[in-house]
Amino acid sequence: MATIGFIGSGNIGGTVARLAAAAGHEVVLSNSRGPQTLADLAGEIGPLASTGTPVQAADQGDIVVVAIPLRAYRDVPGAPLAGKAVIDANNYYPQRDGHISELDSGDVTSSELLQRWLPGARVVKGFNNIYYRHLRGLARPHGAADRSALLIAADDPAAQAAVTEFLDGIGYDTVVSGTLAQSWRQEPGSAAYGGVYGPFEIEGGTPVSAAELRGRIQETRPPGAPAAP
Ligand SMILES: NC(=O)c1ccc[n+]([C@@H]2O[C@H](COP(=O)([O-])OP(=O)(O)OC[C@H]3O[C@@H](n4cnc5c(N)ncnc54)[C@H](OP(=O)(O)O)[C@@H]3O)[C@@H](O)[C@H]2O)c1
């Protein structure tokens, strides 16, 4: 079993941490306010959970999940993430994050921006297009008839393989949407984003197969491209 580090341990980071610990991984939680503020969450998760600073979570994790407001991406420590698979769960919402010109222009995807900030890391976009309650509710054992798939995007084949194996262990099949440059296919505004796993009011979510997700990524178009007539 691996150690999974978390930079950001809120709705989405905390949910992935619960699933990871349930699958037998050790989890290291971190946030901006300090380890002492994560004691309750670690206690709920159980003996496989510990708390630390973002540097400690990055240092100790074999795989590290970044799940913070995108505006804070420059706080993610680069040195301890060198060579590691980093799962980028973040989304760009200008009304929340402030405007970032490269993202507004569509020159880069938000995961490319994180990859540029972490040049030694192997960024994989993932978990960004599923509501955290649905993520918790839809996990199923390998081979279950109603198992759901999650989208990832990656440039590095080894990191892609490591994340696929991790997702399988926590209850999900994987569909690759493309490279980081193509990860707009799962960004806000795409057909693969928002409500894919059912309405937010349905606590447990609605299963979505790999075949259905593949259809969603075919339907999408680059940001800014004109709609089909
Ligand atoms: N909510 C969802 O269902 C969902 C689903 C998919 C993707 N996302 C995306 O995932 C990201 C996180 O969303 P969320 O809903 O999990 O947010 P959240 O519940 O507000 O949690 C954010 C976490 O990030 C931490 N954080 C904030 N600034 C930080 C910094 N500078 N360094 C380290 N940690 C920091 C926060 O800790 P402090 O409180 O100590 O600052 C908190 O633990 C966003 O980009 C969001 O768009 C969300």
Helical coverage, percent range: 25-40%
Number of helices: 9
What's the pLDDT, averaged over the residues?
95
Q: Please name the fourth-level CATH homologous superfamily.
A: NAD(P)-binding Rossmann-like Domain
CATH hierarchy class name: Alpha Beta
* Shape verdict: globular
Low-confidence stretches: none
CATH architecture: 3-Layer(aba) Sandwich
Structural description of this entry:
This protein has 229 residues and is an alpha/beta fold. It has a single domain (3-219), classed as Rossmann fold, CATH 3.40.50.720. The protein contains nine helices and eight strands. The longest helix is centred in the last third of the chain and has 14 residues, at 157-170. NADP nicotinamide-adenine-dinucleotide phosphate (NAP) is lined by residues 7-13, 31-33, 54, 67-70, 72, 75, 89-91, 127-128, 131-132.
